[in-house]
Amino acid sequence: MENRTVQMIDGDGKFNPAEVEQFMQATGLSNCGNSYVVVSIMGPQSSGKSTLLNHLFQTKFREMDAFNGRGQTTHGVWVAKPKCAAEKPFMVAMDIEGADGGERGPDDTAFEKQSALFALAISDIVMINMWCHDVGREQGACKPLLRTVFEVMKRIFSARKITLLFVLRDRTKTPLEHLDQILRKDTEQIWKSVCQPTIHVNTPLSEYFNVRGGHCFTKLELQEELFKEQVAQLRQLLLNRTKHRDGEAIVPASEFCFSAQRIWEEIKDNKDLNLPSHKVLVATVHCEEIANQKLQQLQSDKHLLALQRDSQSGSISGFGSKLSSILDNYLSEYDKEVLNFDEGVRTEKRKQLISKALDFMHPAYLKLLNHLHSEAFESFKHQLEEMLNRGEGFSASVKSCSISAMSKFDKGSADAAIRQANWDTSDIREKLCNDISNEKLPQWKDFYKISPEDTLITPLGCRALWRGFKEGIDERFQEAKWVKFKNGAKKFLVGTFNVAQITLSAAATLNGLPIQPIPIPLPRGTQALQTAIDEVVEDIAADASGEGFSEEKD
């Protein structure tokens, strides 16, 4: 297969993708990345194009049999792999059907222009093969063909240069320097004469082409050895040129067939051929295809699915690094497979791949954060209860446990973070802060024995709270009338109760509780307070008199 020639486009203008794909696989072209070049030849029919290619590259393009008369031998466009070319860059030789043939009749010029434009669109070096005695003429020197091609090339302006190499056959006595001067002058005149888009007015030929002077060959049948020497010189020049190419390939070698077919279809449909846009189109199609493939593989990755399942039941140590590593593996595979495509396209598709992958991972990440929130909140409540049971101060205990819980959550969320993502944990963190703050109030009420069902001022509570009151009673109270003493004691205790309310409200504020002021409820109405005060006063009076008091109470 390596030495076999393959018809890329047949005589009817039909592209043969199956043949080209088979050629790419058999020759190794598919694996060459951007390291490949295409060398093509075009020119008049029966000018020896196929013969020259076969001598240059040891290929087997079909040649004209002179004994059977002159006529069309190459139909359409053919490709082959040169045997004599270096391994890198990979070289593709392309033989183009000759112009000026009589077989096509009126359709001849249409196909020759299409095939010439096709050659220029996908080739790095285009050899224009012509008879030496046709230099300076209109038809034999391919002037109409060059004029059409130049006109189109100005419309499809691309920074990628093409080398035009003129090959002159059957050398005459005219000095090569003179022939070369005529070729360059004619080429420049054709370039200047074609219609120029406004944005490219006065753009020199050198912006599009590297024009190489004529390479003359003697007549093969008359001086075969000298012809072979001249072929060897041209071969070396071509090999040197391919090693120092201008720019890079339009598309990676793996997409050579796809790209060539699309270009040919656009040329056939008379569409404006935009090579930079074509390069982006090919990159877009295949980078997206590869990105979707990697996304599907990631979504079915058994390690990722196991992490997602485990995240449903609790936190996972190293969750973020594990997910990051899985994503990195697929991104690395993507990067390798799209390396030779347009950089802007492959970068954009990479971003889209990351975004879709993170969307797939995000639910498991959120589930894990909720577990971290629950664990941190339970840790706060447990630690606070333990510290209060040990008799430690409420305010210091709350502060210590809050810091510990938030630190636990922060460390867990940092461990769960995926390197490629920039996910915000502030909502769940704020929820944890609020939950901790809300939990302080019931804990504080428990600590100070305050609840909707109980009151600070109970008979038992008052007796304990104001035991010191009776110890400070002056002798004068023992001699006082009971009614005055009782009323004074009541007034003192009620006032102290109001002070207690204010003090407790201030304490709540200092402890960071969300309610201010703290209402201290009186169960069973104010009668409970009245009863409590009466009992305390009677107790104090009895102790003060040493025998109780038997006067009637009012």
Q: How large a portion of the residues is in β-strands, by DSSP E? A: 5-15%
Shape call: rod-shaped
How would a crystallographer describe the biggest sheet? 7 strands, mixed
Q: What number of structural domains do the residues give? A: 3
- Give the CATH H-level superfamily of the largest domain: P-loop containing nucleotide triphosphate hydrolases
- Widest β-sheet, arrangement of strands: 1-3-4-2-5-6-7
> Which architecture name of the largest domain does CATH use?
3-Layer(aba) Sandwich
CATH topology of the largest domain, what is it called? Rossmann fold
According to DSSP, the number of beta strands is 7
Mean pLDDT: 75
* Order of helix and strand elements from N to C terminus: EHEHEEHEHEHEHHHHHHHHHHHHH
The top level CATH class name of the largest domain:
Alpha Beta
Work out the helix count. Answer: 18
The separation of the N and C termini measures: 126 Å
Uncertain parts: 450-477, 499-526, 546-554
- Rounded to an integer in angstroms, the radius of gyration calculated over CA atoms is 48 Å
Structural class computed from helices and strand pairing: alpha/beta
Estimated helix fraction? 55-70%
GO molecular function, one term: GTP binding
Organism: Corchorus capsularis
Family: Belongs to the TRAFAC class dynamin-like GTPase superfamily. GB1/RHD3 GTPase family.
Protein name: Root hair defective 3 GTP-binding protein
